[in-house]
TrEMBL record:
This is Amidinotransferase. Pfam families: DDAH_eukar. InterPro entries: Amdntrnsf_FN0238 (IPR014541). Residues 320-348 are annotated as: Disordered. It comes from the Bacteria.
Length: 348
C-alpha cells in the first residue's frame, strides 16, 4: 500500500448541490451559476459529474464508497475531505468547519462504514473547537506528506495554527505554515487548491508564496526524498491544476497502478512538459466537473481518501460494503453528530 495514495475513497453524491453562499466571501475560486439556470438543473448536472468521477475511478481499479445526501441545507457536502481524513495505523480525524452550514456534513454512517469495513483503532474529533471559533478544514486546509511527515498549510482563518499543532502532535507530523496569496493579495483559502503531493511528484504553485525564503524552504522539503516538482502558475491554480490527488488502483489482472485524478479543466491547463513529468510516475485520470467547480473546489476536494487496512473477512466485498449503511443516511447536525459518534475521542 502506498503511504501517499489511498486504495479506496469516499464520495458524497449530493442530490441538492449548489455553490454555497456562506463560503463565497473568502473563496475566490467560487463562481455564479449561469443566469436563469434553475436549482434543479444545477443539481442534475452536478450529480452527473459526481457519477462520472465515481465511474472513472472504478474503471482504474480504485475502490469507491458512495454515500447519498438529499439534504438541501448541505450545499457543499460533495466535499467530504474538509471534515474527514483517515490515516495509516487505523486512526480517523474529524475536523472543525468554518461555515456553520457545513458543520452538519459530518456523518455517523460514514464513520460506521469505516469501522465495519476497515481496521479503525481510534477517531480523534476536533469539531468541539467550533464554538470557540477555531477551525481546521481537514485535507483542504492541510496538504499532507506521509513520507516526510510534513503538513503544508497556507495560513488562513480556516487553518488555525493552534489546532494544527494539536493535529501534528496527535498524528506525528511537522507543520510547515506559510502565507500564500494571489496576484491581488487575496489569501489562498485552502492549501489543496495550490498544492498536490504525490509519491514521486508534487504539483505546487510556489510563485504564490511571496516570502522568498519560505518558498525555498517549501521547495526543499518537497524534493528532499527525490520527489520531482511541477511548478504551477497562478493561472493554472485558478483552473484547479493544484487540486488533484494521487490514488492507488489496480489493472484488471490485479497488478497495482498509480493514478493522478484531476478535472479535465485542470489537465487542459497543464503544458505538455508538465503532463509528461506527472506521467513518469502515474497516469492522469481527468473528468469533466464544471458545475461542481463553481463551488470553488475540484476533484481533490471531492475525495476523502481511505488510508486504512481492510478487514480481511470483508475485503472481497469492499465495493458493496457501504450499500446497506448508505440507504438511510444520518441527518444529525454537526455538533450532535460529533458527540454521538462511537469511538470518538474529543479534544477540549
Amino acid at each position: 500500500m502506498s503511504a501517499v495514495a489511498p486504495h479506496a475513497v469516499i464520495l458524497i453524491r449530493a442530490l441538492r448541490f449548489r455553490p454555497n453562499p456562506a463560503t463565497a466571501a473568502d473563496n475566490a475560486f467560487q463562481a455564479e451559476v449561469a443566469e436563469g439556470e434553475s436549482p434543479d438543473t444545477t443539481a442534475f448536472k452536478a450529480l452527473a459529474e459526481m457519477d462520472a468521477l465515481a465511474t472513472a475511478l472504478r474503471d482504474v481499479g480504485v475502490v469507491v464508497h458512495v454515500f447519498e445526501d438529499e439534504d438541501h441545507t448541505r450545499p457543499d457536502s460533495v466535499f467530504p475531505n474538509n471534515w474527514l481524513s483517515t490515516h495509516a495505523g487505523g486512526t480517523v480525524a474529524v475536523y472543525p468547519m468554518y461555515a456553520s452550514n457545513r458543520r452538519h456534513e459530518r456523518r455517523a454512517d460514514v464513520l460506521e462504514m469505516l469501522k465495519a469495513s476497515y481496521r479503525v483503532q481510534a477517531i480523534v474529533d476536533y469539531s468541539g473547537l467550533e464554538p470557540d471559533g477555531i477551525f481546521l478544514e481537514g485535507t483542504g486546509a492541510m496538504v499532507l506528506d506521509p513520507i516526510s511527515r510534513v503538513a503544508y498549510v497556507a495560513r488562513s482563518h480556516r487553518a488555525d495554527t493552534n489546532v494544527l499543532e494539536r493535529f501534528c502532535t496527535d498524528f506525528s507530523y511537522e507543520p510547515m505554515v506559510f502565507d500564500a496569496v494571489d496576484s491581488g493579495g487575496v489569501p489562498v483559502y485552502h492549501t489543496n487548491v495550490m498544492a498536490t503531493i504525490g509519491t514521486d511528484v508534487a504539483l505546487v504553485a510556489l510563485e504564490m508564496i511571496p516570502d522568498a525564503r519560505r518558498r525555498a524552504e517549501v521547495r526543499e522539503r518537497l524534493s528532499v526524498n527525490g520527489r520531482r516538482i511541477v511548478e504551477l502558475s497562478e493561472r493554472q491554480v485558478r483552473e484547479f491544476a493544484g487540486n488533484a490527488v494521487e490514488l492507488a488502483g489496480r489493472w484488471p489482472d490485479g497488478r497495482r497502478r498509480t493514478v493522478m485524478a484531476m478535472s479535465a479543466r485542470a489537465k487542459a491547463s497543464l503544458t505538455d512538459a508538465q503532463i509528461a513529468l506527472i506521467e513518469e510516475s502515474c497516469e492522469i485520470v481527468a473528468v469533466e466537473i464544471p458545475t461542481i467547480e463553481l463551488a470553488g473546489g475540484s476533484v481533490r476536494c471531492m475525495i476523502a481518501g481511505v488510508h486504512l487496512d481492510p478487514r480481511p473477512a470483508r475485503e472481497p466485498e469492499l465495493t458493496e460494503a457501504v450499500e446497506a449503511i448508505a440507504d438511510e443516511p444520518e441527518t444529525m447536525d454537526g455538533a450532535e453528530a460529533a458527540s454521538e459518534l462511537p469511538l470518538v475521542s474529543s479534544l477540549e
